[in-house]
Design a protein that fits this description.
Blueprint (H helix, E strand, L loop, with lengths): L12 H8 L3 H15 L4 E11 L28 H13 L4 E6 L8 H15 L3 E5 L5 H10 L3 E3 L9 H4 L5 H13 L3 E3 L2 E3 L5 H12 L7 E6 L16 H14 L4 E4 L8 H9 L4 E4 L4 E2 L2 E2 L3 H10 L3 E2 L13
Parallel strand pairs: 1-2, 1-9, 1-12, 2-3, 3-4, 4-5, 6-7, 7-8, 8-9
Antiparallel strand pairs: 10-11
Helix pairs in contact: 1-8, 2-9, 3-4, 5-7, 8-9
Length: 332
């Protein structure tokens, strides 16, 4: 039974580390039990993520192929026309997605014609009856209010890693900048999507610290993406080793236990996981994936929608249906 009073916001690092380090089968069993108390274990939300503006970002995130300063094969793409984006959204809906997220490689949102076009995209996707999400970089309170009025359901702004490790990965912004944008999103009445990446060279303590920041927020993020580093040639982290699947399972299970009401999203890195390994992640509490007809997640490889639908069928899972009460209205 769901009980919002059971949600905790006072986790200690020691408590989280003890959970994370439990024997694997015991950890997964506990996470699966929590998952069944809060969610339908047979359902997985299918989400589609589209890069509406690609590359040329002035930030220096060490993992990102869209940073202008790194020599990658990523081609810079200006903001897509609204009609193109809406066509992708309709195709995503027809393929079984209930959530459509639009990503732009910006450091922050600027109040210009491009933002006006984003507003048009949000309105159009919302009118299709999809959960509409954006990830556009840093956001002011006024900009968040405009997005909410347009019908934005969720805003993604990942912490990426722990506050302690943050400066090792990014120097062009601070951890507090992430928290400020999340706060602006909350104040506007938009749901929060925020998680992080493992495999950046961080320690277990950093993974725990990041989860603790999320779990101790005044209101838990409604959505928590857990990403494995997608290594992009030309970036500083390109030669790091592949993330061990059991590290992903541990991270997802721990997130499920301390963030029981949140959607835990099995995000980047799935292309390197077998169907069985992904099944372990679902058992540990993941209940959303990103898919799409382009077989990319932003600029990195990702399974296609047909492959994902077959996997869900093989595992006895089904796509989550869009619930009307989850939609935003343009009236706020």
């Amino acid at each position: 039974m769901k009980d919002s009073k059971a949600l905790r916001h006072d986790w200690t690092k020691e408590e989280l580390l003890a959970i994370y380090n439990k024997p694997l089968l015991e950890l997964v069993y506990e996470a699966a039990t929590v998952h069944r108390q809060w969610h339908n274990p047979e359902e997985v939300q299918i989400s589609t993520l589209l890069s509406v503006k690609t590359g040329g970002c002035p930030e220096d995130c060490s993992y990102c192929g869209q940073a202008a300063r790194y020599h990658t094969d990523i081609k810079v793409q200006a903001l897509l026309p609204t009609e193109t984006v809406l066509a992708h959204a309709q195709k995503a809906k027809d393929s079984g997605s209930s959530r459509f997220c639009m990503a732009a490689a910006w450091r922050e949102v600027r109040d210009n014609r491009d933002f006006d076009r984003i507003i048009e995209m949000v309105q159009g996707v919302n009118e299709m009856g999809l959960e509409v999400c954006c990830t556009l970089g840093m956001l002011t309170e006024d900009q968040a209010n405009r997005l909410q009025e347009a019908g934005l359901y969720a805003y993604n702004h990942n912490l990426d890693t722990s506050e302690e490790f943050y400066d090792e990965i990014i120097s062009t912004r601070k951890f507090d900048n992430r928290l400020a944008t999340i706060n602006n999103v909350r104040k506007a009445g938009i749901t929060v999507c925020s998680g992080g990446i493992i495999g950046l060279g961080e320690k277990d303590a950093d993974r725990i610290s990041m989860l603790r920041t999320l779990a101790n927020m005044e209101k838990h993020p409604e959505s928590v993406p857990i990403n494995a580093l997608a290594r992009v040639a030309g970036t500083p982290l390109a030669d790091l080793p592949k993330v061990d699947v059991w590290d992903m399972v541990r991270m997802i299970a721990t997130a499920r236990i301390v963030l029981p009401s949140s959607m835990v999203r099995l995000s980047a890195g799935r292309i390197e996981m077998t169907e069985v390994e992904q099944g372990w992640c679902f058992m540990a509490g993941a209940n959303s994936i990103f898919t799409g007809e382009r077989q990319t997640l932003l600029v990195t490889p990702n399974p296609g929608v047909d492959e994902d639908m077959q996997m869900l069928k093989n595992l006895g899972l089904k796509p989550m249906e869009l619930k009307k009460e989850r939609l935003c209205s343009t009236n706020g």
